[in-house]
Amino acid sequence: MAYYHIWTMGCQMNKAESERLGSYLEQQGYQATEAAEEADLIVLNSCVVRHSAENRALSRLNSLKTLKRSRPNLAIAVTGCLVDSEVGELERRFPHVDLFFGPGALPDLMARVGRRGDALPRHPSPSTLVPIIQGCDNFCSYCIVPYRRGREHSRPVEEIVAEVEELVGRGAREVSLVGQNVNSYGHDLPGRPDLAQLLTRLNEIAGLWRIRFLTSHPKDVSPEFARAMARLEKVCPHLSLPLQSGDDDILRAMRRGYTGEQYRQLIGRLRQAIPGVAISTDVIVGFPGETEEQFQRTLDLVAEMRCDTVHVAAYSPRPGTLASREMADSVPAAEKKRRRQRIEALEEGIAAEINAGLRGKAVKVLVEGKRRGRWYGRTLTAKLVFFSHGAELRGQLMGVRVDKTGPWWLEGMAFEE
Ligand code: SF4
What we know:
4 domains, five-stranded parallel sheet, about 425 residues, Rossmann fold, five-stranded mixed barrel, Transcription Regulator spoIIAA, about 25% strand
């Protein structure tokens, strides 16, 4: 028996691709192992979106050198955003790696290997990731993604519908449609279908209970789209909508294509169109030239918007991007850390208050699995819920009465739906 080990870093796109790669390898006779040392094939699915992530990927690659020396038959493959078009340079730097393939290039890889099989998970999780668009056309000034994943490339509607039907047949109950910017889905396809049309088609699939999608770009979320979200009963009322900064000059320098006021109005419209909608956002602190006053504007907007979750990152220059070429990384690391911690502390309080509002209420949870002896799953608004129950519940929809809450999770008692 041959074993494979996949080490996945970064975003939901990488997670979706690793899941598919694992499934494909299993059809070729490989078995997964948690222990890299006993694997015959190791795949590093890398992320370089932050400097720290790139360092981790490179140090992992270097550590594999020793393993390869002691086991020359070990095959090592690298994919994800570390792999750019300059594969020759990577091959020179890492001669112990057998194969580099670009993000999303799994079909090419399968064609090269020349073996049959599909990349869909045989036994998908009740909540499964489905990539719908690769790449990004936005070129935000700090972001390496468009250089590594290329321009936007949407998968045809029929292909996605057929895939989701197949996944539902194999046991999936919820799909999360993933892409760097899912709201620009379809503009590169004949007939220019949009995300609302895709959601409408998926909404009709029998046996599929819930549909999620991420990430959305604020400039691409239209009022018609919000109405479609509200109308389609399987589409979960949850949006991942990165703000990045509350200051207009910083947003302009980031090339985000909206102002703080436009973001504020968008959230207002969404909350009006989709009652109870949960919003997750992302913020970058310490962007080149960010003053204390500009940071304060971000802090104020985060306080005002009261999002359900906020992911905060400290800016780090990524070679090849406009920001790294033309803007000095002027905010000291200690100051970036202080700003990050201030937003995190603020959000912890906001999230705790929002979740406390659910105490005593009944929520519907799609059970995904067990962690430390307790079942866990998510509500319609993507809140993580833990509860105890003696029966096998994976893949079932359970009613849970919430009795304990924290900023990042809920706990409760299950009752039959
Ligand atoms: S929208 Fe901006 S931040 Fe997001 S992937 Fe595209 S370029 Fe990067």
